[in-house]
Specification:
The complex is a heterodimer of chains A (about 290) and B (about 325). Chain A has about 290 residues and is mainly alpha-helical. Helices cover about 75% and strands about 0% of the residues of chain A. Chain A has a domain of about 170 residues: MetI-like (MetI-like fold, Orthogonal Bundle), CATH 1.10.3720. Classes of the chains: A mainly alpha (about 290), B mainly alpha (about 325).
Chain lengths: ~290, ~325
């Protein structure tokens, strides 16, 4: 990779692509313009979050930041228990993330490291479960949660999320490629139990993979809409997406407040993405390509 | 094995325990998934099949469930709203899906072969919408699609009147401002634009991963033979990318047919003017949770499953073999 770059990166016409500089500049302009177009809705969301209803609905629409953010935030808190909603989202996403990281890596460890009876069949069931469209079970899911008395509780969402076939698959691939089986025997000779081998030997090795899985799980749960919409129906139990949806239904939608709320919903994801975009992208692609 | 047990002294209790924990460890480690999957994955599917043959309003309790055979399915076959939701879903899946790939393939090619710098920041920018809350961005797009003060109409008006672009976009002027989310003919295009915007970057990343597996030598050989970038794209990239195209299109089919968040938010939850934006997933949700017809809703979920299965099989039949044979 590095070698190639050094042999071709220099000079007027690009040796590797055979393109001349003018064409390459045109290409950059097109690619950057498309990137800006993609990012514009995010920028506009933050801009509108700082404007009042009056300036949002003016022509031309505002394109630069205003001074209404604080009042929008106050208005948002007046219409919804929004801090509570943020906490709910955070709590559900965190519980699902921690539990998934543990159970998925444990099961992934078993599928990667052991030979046992019915392994192929069980792994087949796991992969098969990825192909079931989630909508198929949505009605019974609601009934089960209702039967368990879990309506309007966070565990209605994070407990089912722990069974992440995607996570197990991701962890299995990661462990199989990064942990030598010899370590298993080495641990056994030292007299460690199988769980201790997982905990003391495997977990430190797979930390980067676990971090990726953690971020993907958190993002997925944080954004989840249909699940919370079905099992949460009290304002105090809402997660952010469901809470934002109720603002929309009001007769006089306060768009400044709505967009302040959406900005708060998107902000944690932006932070994760800025810090670890490579890991997030690679994890999501690896999961879907090999799945 | 038998000899060791007869000749050696009986195994110590701790050794036997150790052997036992070794033997059951793998089953123990994978059991949480299978227990949870049984409760929250497998049982719901079986139960929704059962439910689809019942008439049931959940408010009245489990005892009021009544077996009605195929009536839910028969009723849906005559239900104009159901058919509308099917055609809406197919319309949006197609209009949002096809351009995703038409844009993503050349874009991934340009990113991986055409430029040397900023590959990652550009890819990350295209990818960002994919990981953001569909509800949040649908709300943002609701303001972008605003009739009087939305950014899209504002931009179109600008294009239609500005001297440098009027020759091309001038024809738009008489149709502006477009009531994107209020008038039936514009709702599906508006939803499709949003869905396209949210998912094309994901496909760019998929195709970039596919392109990375094509040996560089092929391009170098083509270049020596005097092939242009466009010719390399048509004769090397596209054929070798077929397995990935096949796979990415499969994901698009399955995902787009289950579209819920974006149309739900953009149409305020009711499908919009004459249900022009109501997808099957939305109709299923409303049937079950607004009109409390759980049996009918379960039947819709199975019909949706059949639709997804059918289209996936058709896709496999027509493109699967050609998509897979280049892999070897």
């Amino acid at each position: 990779m590095r070698l190639r770059a050094s042999t071709s990166g220099r000079g007027g016409t690009d040796a590797r692509t055979g393109r001349n500089p003018v064409l390459s500049i045109v290409l950059y302009v097109v690619l950057i313009a498309l990137a800006l177009l993609t990012l514009f809705p995010f920028y506009w969301m933050f801009v509108l979050a700082t404007h009042s209803q009056g300036t949002i609905f003016s022509a031309p629409p505002p394109m630069w930041f205003g001074e209404f953010l604080e009042r929008n935030y106050t208005a948002l808190l007046g219409r919804l228990p929004f801090l509570r909603n943020i906490w709910n989202s955070f709590y559900i996403a965190l519980m699902a993330t921690v539990a998934t990281m543990f159970f998925a890596s444990l099961a992934g460890f078993a599928f990667a490291m052991y030979e046992f009876r019915f392994k192929r069949v069980l792994f087949g069931v796991l992969i098969g479960s990825l192909m079931i469209p989630p909508l198929l079970g949505i009605i019974p899911y609601y009934l089960i949660i209702q039967y368990l008395g879990w309506l309007n509780t966070p565990r209605a969402l994070w407990v089912p999320a722990m069974a992440s076939a995607f996570g197990i698959f991701l962890m299995r691939q990661y462990i199989a490629s990064s942990m030598p089986r010899d370590l298993l025997d080495a641990g056994r000779i030292d007299g460690a139990s199988e769980f201790r081998i997982y905990w003391n030997i495997a977990v430190p090795i797979i930390r980067p993979g676990l971090a990726t899985l953690g971020m993907l799980t958190f993002i997925g749960q944080w954004n989840n809409f249909l699940g919370p919409l079905v099992v949460l129906n009290q304002r105090e139990s809402y997660t952010i997406p469901v809470a934002l949806r109720t603002l929309q239904g009001q007769i006089q939608t306060d768009w400044g407040a709505v967009l302040t709320g959406t900005a708060l919903a998107v902000l944690p994801l932006l932070i994760i993405f800025v810090l670890a975009s490579r890991q997030v992208i690679e994890g999501l692609v690896a999961g879907s390509v090999k799945g | 094995m038998a000899r060791t047990t007869t000749s050696a002294p009986p195994l110590a209790w701790s050794t036997r325990l150790d052997k036992f924990q070794r033997r059951i460890a793998p089953y123990l480690f994978i059991s949480p998934f299978f227990i949870l999957f049984a409760i929250f994955g497998l049982f719901p599917i079986v139960f929704s099949m059962y439910l689809s043959f019942q008439a049931w309003n959940p408010i009245q309790g489990l005892g009021t469930m009544r077996y009605i055979g195929l009536e839910n399915y028969i009723w849906l076959m005559d239900d104009p709203w159901f058919w509308r939701s099917i055609t809406n879903t197919l319309w949006i899946a197609f209009a949002a899906g096809v351009p995703q790939h038409l844009v993503a393939i050349p874009l991934a090619f340009a990113l991986s072969r055409g430029i040397q710098r900023f590959r990652h920041p550009l890819t990350a920018a295209y990818f960002l919408p994919y990981i953001t809350s569909a509800v949040a961005i649908s709300l943002v797009f609701q303001t972008i699609f605003g009739t009087q003060f939305g950014a899209l109409n504002h931009a179109l008006a600008h294009l239609a009147t500005a001297p440098w672009s009027a020759w091309l976009f001038g024809g738009l002027a008489e149709n502006l401002p477009v009531n994107w989310l209020g008038r039936a003919p514009y709702i599906k295009p508006a939803i499709s634009i949003l869905v396209w915007w949210q998912f094309f970057g994901f496909n760019v990343v998929l195709y970039a991963a596919g392109l990375a597996t094509i040996p560089k030598d092929y391009y170098e050989a083509a270049q020596i033979d005097g092939a242009s970038g466009f010719q390399s794209f048509m004769n090397i990239t596209l054929p070798l990318l077929r397995p990935m195209i096949f796979f990415a299109v499969t994901l698009t089919i399955i995902g787009n047919l289950q579209l819920f968040d974006q149309p739900f938010i953009l149409t305020g939850g009711d499908g919009g003017t004459s249900q022009a934006g109501m997808t099957v997933a939305m109709y299923l949700y409303r049937t079950g949770f607004e009109w409390l017809e759980m049996g009918t809703a379960a039947a819709i979920s199975w019909l949706l499953f059949v639709l997804i299965g059918t289209l996936t099989v058709i896709h496999f039949y027509f493109f699967g073999r050609s998509g897979l044979e280049t892999r070897d």
